[in-house]
Structure formats: structure tokens, C-alpha cells
Amino acid sequence: MEESKSVMFPKSLHEAWKLYHDGKESSCYISGGTWLRTQWEANPEGTAKQLICVDCLPGLQTISTSSDDGETMVTIGAAATLSQCLESPVIGESFSGFITACRNIAAPAIRNQATVGGNILTAAGDTIPSLLVIDAQLHWFNGTDIESQPLSDWLRERENDGANEEERILVSVTIPVKKQEKKGTAFSFYTKVGRREAFIPSVVTVAGTGMLTIEGTLADVALAAGGGTTVPGRLPDVEALLHRARFSPELLKKVHEKIMTDYSPPPDPFAGVYYKKTVAANVIIGELYRLQEQQSDDKGGVGYAVRS
């Protein structure tokens, strides 16, 4: 006979924390539940006996803006759905890569339930690369107060200590809105590659942001890659190669080689390490090439191609 389960609806973060820690061995925080449901379908015996619903907690479903020392910040509640993000004017205006990532996850019915916090807490969600390149910060309730942590730092912790369950409650994600600079043209991209067009886990996801200066050099380039079971991460050495660089066949070749060296995804039953490395490198080179072509068209020049 199947053991009964209970769903708890705490009214505060403190109450949710206490419920979890009072029954830690058999409790689980839940919001949209779309990812957890797939885990439970694969392993019914692994289903927690007590589900602590946090999506009804005050503030966890809101999307808002604030100003701090002249810098505009967008705050996304951890229980805000992907559909909410897609409908948010401020997110649409400021974070096109993140919007593309949300739009390319599953179907509308899933996006109406799936939350930003849930996607992050998988440590492999498809929105994560797009959040890494815009310097997202996570805000956690630790049982006493709220603490902040860069998304990149938390991912490194999960990669090194992934077997331990995260016991804190993810409250929100904040993202700085970069001011429009007159020194060049900002760019942003996000690409998801899967085994078919839709309704399938990704094989590789890649995101990037930066600026093409009026002098024709690249600046403030941020790149991240993930996909599948890979814990996403930035590509700092590749970013350094591109900083203040001008487009050339030699540059694109070096970037491709560096991605092949630095990006280290795990294999899975459908795609090997070399395949994933090659896809990530080719996608990033393709985006850079399109950017270079646009620059060349603006100046009436000639574009470059790179062979790999």
C-alpha cells in the first residue's frame, strides 16, 4: 500500500524552514514541481513524504525593480513562473537572452507552472547560462536572515559538493540592468541545442553578452555554456581572449580552440564529450561571426569565416 503524503502551506519563511528541519529526512520544498515530478516518476520511492509548498509565501512570485546607488536592479521572486518572466516588460527590455531561454523551455502549460527558482535549483537548468552572463545574484533564507551569493559561486559549490541537498530556501534572483553606453553596440545571444526541436532535454546551451565598440573592438564579453546534466559555467579564458580584440580569422580560430580545451561537459547516453565541446564551440563562433558580419556590413567591408 502506498504511503500517504502531506502537503504543508507555511505562511512565512521561518515556518517553512522549521517544517523542513523538523522532518528533514522526509521533507522537500516544492513550488511549481515540474522538475521534481519527473524525478519522482523515475523513482517513486524517492518521493518525499512531506511537501512544503513555498510558492504561496509573500514576495516569492513577484517581479520588481529597484535602484541602488544609481544602479537599477530587477528582482525575480524564486517562485515566479517562466511565463511571468516572458510577460514582464522590464525583463523583456533588458534581458533578451534570458527571455529566449525561458521561451525555449518545454510547452506553455509547463512554463505556466515551472519557476525560475526551480530551474536554478536543478543546477543544470536551461536558464542558467543566460543568467550567468548577466551577473545574477541569488538570495537565500538561511533560517535567520537573507544572505546573498553570486549564481556562479553557488554553481561551483554544487559542482564540488553536489551530493548534499541545498537546505536554504531560495527567495529571489537579482540582476543588474546595464546602462546604455554610447561607446558601442550591446549584443546578447542564447542558443539551445537538443536532439530535436522541442520537448526534449538540451544537449548544449550557450549564452553570451558584450559590446562591439565604435572602435571595432569587443568589450565586456561574458560567455557561459551548459546543457543536459552539465553544471553550467562561465568561460573566463575565452572571455579574456576576446577582450579588446578585433575580429580576424586568427582570433576566431583561437577562440574555437580555447573552448574545445576549457569546456568540460560530462558525456551522456546520447552525446559524447567531444560532440558537446564541438557544438558549444561552433555555436559561439557562429554568433561571433554573425556579429562580425553585421559590423562588416555597417562599414561596407568583408567578413571572415573560420574553419574548425
UniProtKB/TrEMBL annotation:
SMART domains: CO_deh_flav_C. SUPFAM superfamilies: CO dehydrogenase flavoprotein C-terminal domain-like, FAD-binding/transporter-associated domain-like. Pfam families: CO_deh_flav_C, FAD_binding_5. Residues 1-180 form the FAD-binding PCMH-type domain. Gene3D superfamilies: 3.30.465.10, CO dehydrogenase flavoprotein, C-terminal domain (3.30.390.50). One of its GO terms (molecular function) is oxidoreductase activity. InterPro entries: CO_DH_flav_C, CO_DH_flav_C_dom_sf, Diverse_Substr_Oxidored, FAD-bd_PCMH, FAD-bd_PCMH-like_sf, FAD-bd_PCMH_sub2, Mopterin_DH_FAD-bd. Keywords: FAD, Flavoprotein, Oxidoreductase. The keyword Lipid biosynthesis does not apply. It comes from the Bacteria. This is Carbon-monoxide dehydrogenase medium subunit. It comes from Evansella caseinilytica.
